[in-house]
Amino acid sequence: MSSETKQILTTDGIPLEVSLKKAEKKNKIKAFLLVAPLLLFLIITYIFPIGEMFTRSIDDKMITNMLPKTFKEMESWDGQKLPPEEVFSAFYYDYKALVEKQEHGKLGQRLNKEKNGFNSTTKRLFRNIKRKKIDESISIKEQIIKVHPNWNKVEYWQAIKRTAPPYTLAKYLKGMDMYYAPDGSIVQVDEDRRIHRILWLRTLEIAFFVTLFCFLMGYPIAHLLATLPMKYSNLLMICVLLPFWTSLLVRTASWMILLQQQGVVNDFFVMIGLVADDNRPEMMYNKVGTYVAMTQILLPFMVLPLYSVMKTISPSLMRAGKSLGGTPFVAFWKVYFPLTIPGIGAGCLLVFILAIGYYITPALVGGASGTLISNQIAFHMKQTLDWSFASAMGLMLLTGVLVIYWIYNKLVGVDNIKLG
Amino acid sequence: MSKNPEFVKFDKVDKSYDGKVLVVKDLQLDIAEGEFITMLGPSGSGKTTCLMMLAGFETPTHGEILLDGNIISNIPPHKRGIGMVFQNYALFPHMTVYENLAFPLRVRKVEKDEIDKKVDKALSMVSLSGFETRMPAQLSGGQQQRVAVARALVFDPAVVLMDEPLGALDKNLRESMQYEIKHIHESIGVTVVYVTHDQSEALTMSNRIAVFNDGKVQQLSNPAELYEKPVNSFVAEFIGENNTFNGEVVDIAKDKCKVKLANSEILANPISVKSKGEKTTVSLRPERALINPTDKMDNMFTGKIEEVIYHGDHTRVRLNLLGSSEFILKVPNSTSNLELKVSQDINIGWNSVDARALDPK
User: What angle do helix axes A140-147 and A85-101 make, rounded to 10 degrees?
Assistant: First the structure.
């Protein structure tokens, strides 16, 4: 077709395109207004909190705001030797202002995280200021050094300088068991203190195996659901969905009843003579409990997408495969299985992403060796109140999920996902 | 080469799904090698079940199915070597046309070169050369159908089964595909068992037609005989159009009988009536009754036109004749067309040999 096709006009002489756009504009506005409440809801409850989480996780403005004069003077300090008199006096006035506002304690705690011993060092200064022992008319540098020998050490001043930028990635490094060394380089924590990395790996491992178990158990169930006559498949479907209608807490609690050492499963094992009464295996408060309970709870998320995909596969395809000479296995593997991949993809992605952020079940049945990263996040939210660290780990989790999604998209293609 | 007249044999086959109702009853059917046989019947008549038993997806409840003299009831479908074309084509949607066709060859471990050659040949047979890399979803219905046919033939099976393969196509395409399948059958001489509920399809394509009803073969004969000489009223009714008169035999001779209707008598050809007093349904093809017959015919009546429907190549006329207002006439559209008007009286005549007195409905 030629590109110079004549402009088509409507009967009243307006170009067709313009008239069409006009007609569609109204519909577009209507459509937008219909989704606007949801959009607003998403922005308020989803986009905004994520942004808030992000700023909180990198926020380090506290000291920046507490020591404005000091950091201004420190700009011209090279950080190699002890800072000049100006820096000392700026720090003194900043600190004095904090003392008046009674915020000096926070500074000490924060600086102590940067360099051990800072808390006592600043406290000594605080007492001197309180007793008005510092004479502002002579060199403040010398007086401060006299207060505590640490003030004569360049590392302590370097630590203060490190806190100057209003933003820091320290929380993210901590999430990966790393930290900023005094010289500003990134180093790993001692091997016996690398707790987060173990948790990340365990989270991935448990999510992976739970996905695998769900797949291995869900595939035959979904196949059965899709091929059984209606009256049986409906009943089976209810059995699959029943857990959905029960509270997550109730289900997890039931597993606790079943799996505990004096529980039903152990009683049964003892009864059939599988284990000795005085040697009941521990099936809870470890990984086993987490695996069992999470697999059961997440199973419907695997079965439903698989079922909806399998339902659309005509049984005549398998028959065709067989009539063309394929053994039942070949017909299954070459014909049926490839057609269920969209369902497998959707189910696995769903279960994996849900499992990676699972909280209640591992918290209740996981014990020490079965807890996941989300439990750690909750711990920092509720116990240590280090919200910025919790935020950082939450975002790392989110990033991890997005990376998995991206890899999945590269491998299988998101267009091939079929949820129903 | 002498052809085996019992290449496929259904020997007293019964089939029941629920143990209560027999879907197929005592089926006795021989299919000759190289024959194109059609199983024709309304839905639920057992024809597809027969096909599925032959393909191996259903097992007979009783009796045996023999293929070339061997009992195949215990052979699984993939070892029977029977090609099958399914109602909805059943092309593998995730494979290209080439892969679809290569599937039966690959599972038979045929060499790659040989596969290429055979796929090429099969595709050119259905005039789809050059479509190897297409996915089934990129093909039109007719093309998918042809790929399905080619796939069922590519591994040179002895028998090809077709389960209403043209059901999803539109009328014109269906007709051209009918000829195409017929020509393929003629050129390669494979035995085809074809299932359909479309009688015109069956008449066009088959060597022989087995008309199924109620789990039984009602009549097995070639298309012409089936149409011209139906043996019972079900076949007469099911194949083509049909005018019927219900009555009672009052007089019977060797090749003629007199049938008493509600208020008149007609002469008919006794097919399934043997003696006086039997109830019968007389069947007459619409095109065998003539308007204003010039020759002497042994049934001559006058009827009143109730309705005239123009059909292009012919005109259908509904008459009130002999107490029934459902008598249909087919008037060919010729240049010397008659003036046909509603509520006009016309003379109708037919020969008793065309009026077949069959079993009562």
Answer: 60
Which domains, and CATH codes, for chain B?
Answer: 8-233 (3.40.50.300), 241-358 (2.40.50.140)
CB–CB of A325 and B55 under 8 A? no
- The Cα B65–Cα B77 span in angstroms is 13
E strand residue ranges, chain B: 8-16, 22-31, 36-40, 62-67, 70-71, 82-85, 159-163, 191-196, 208-213, 216-221, 243-252, 257-260, 265-270, 279-284, 290-291, 299-310, 314-321, 324-332, 345-350, 356-358
Instruction: Please state, in angstroms and rounded to a whole number, the distance separating the CA atoms of residues B231 and B221.
Output: 10
Q: Are B209 and B220 spatial neighbours (Cβ–Cβ below 8 Å)? A: yes
- Closest listed residue to residue A244, CA positions, set A203, A298, A186, A199: A298
pLDDT in tens, B67-118: 888 888 888 888 888 889 988 888 999 999 999 999 999 988 888 999 999 8
- 3-class state of residue A101 by DSSP: helix
On whether ipTM exceeds 0.90, the answer is no
Q: Is the pTM here over 0.80, yes or no?
A: no
**Which of B17, B67, B72, B84 has the highest number of chain A CBs within 10 A, making it the mutation to test binding with A?**
B84
- Residue A97: is it exposed, middle or buried by C-beta count within 10 angstroms (0-12/13-18/19+)? middle
Tell me the count of A-B CB pairs closer than 8 A: 69
The domains located in chain A, with CATH, are 12-59 (no CATH), 61-164 (no CATH), 195-416 (1.10.3720.10)
Strands of B22-31's sheet, edge to edge? B22-31, B8-16, B62-67, B70-71
A151 touches A121 (CB < 8 A)? yes
Give the C-alpha separation, B253 to B268, whole Å: 10
Instruction: Name the 3-class secondary structure at B33.
Output: coil
Please enumerate in sequence order all residues whose Cβ is within 8 A of that of B323, keeping only pairs 6 or more positions apart, or say none.
Answer: B261, B262, B263, B264
Q: Which residues, numbered 100 to 129 in chain B, qualify as contacts with chain A under a Cβ-Cβ cut-off of 8 Å?
A: 103-104, 107-108
The C-alpha torsion from A90 through A92 and A98 to A100, rounded to 10°, is -120
Give the whole-angstrom CA distance, residue A128 versus residue A147: 7
Digit-coded pLDDT (tens) for A258-273:
888 888 888 888 888 8
In angstroms, rounded to a whole number, what is the distance separating the alpha carbons of residues A319 and B88? Answer: 12
